[in-house]
Amino acid sequence: MDTVPWDELTVSDYSPDVLGEQVVTLALTAENTTREATFTVVVRDRFVDVADDNQFALEINWLAARGISTGWTTPAGQEFRPVTHIARDAMAAFIYRLAGSPAFEEPETSPFVDVAPGDQFYREITWLAEQEITTGWTTARGAEFRPLAPIARDAMAAFLYRYADEPAVTLPETSPFTDVTPSTQFYADIAWMGEAGISTGFQGNDGTAQYQPLGPVNRDAMAAFLFRYQGYEDQLS
């Protein structure tokens, strides 16, 4: 059988981060002739513990499609562990991958006394520090990153705000969240999260919006925050 080398192969109407059936068009160009074929593909859940009806299934699968999260390998399959609190080191990894895993020469000496070369996510954490996205905590023995501690919602807002290059934000006279005031640490960062549509907070018993700044961030919520952040960034470009 004679074969003809193809010049270009294109796939359209395919979204790896969207679950369910999709009609995809495959176009093959060879010797100035294009042949097209249409077929149906099914994008299934990437994690055995994230069902289609999960509140953040779309966002979690987007995270996997972008290579931002691979989860944990188990005998049952890949697990995302959506309601587990995300640790600060994993948060660093998520942001580093969101940035496209940029080339970065790891420092021989860590900027943090509790993070050493060879530690998991050392590159990601030190990149975060080099970009001034995090400064950690100042202690008597030096700066600490506290990599295994759950990241709080206010610190998460600060990380994303700094990652976005601290865009101008109109600080409202009245906070969008009843549990955050102008004197709250990271008020501008949190207000920006609300203004950019990245966080809507929680509805309190009185019907008002609460941010719960000191509460830990679950992994499913982190997927949602990054998904919305990407949408915010796309609108700016």
Automatic annotation (TrEMBL):
Residues 43-107, 108-172, 173-237 form the SLH domain. InterPro entries: SLH_dom. It comes from the Bacteria. This is SLH domain-containing protein.
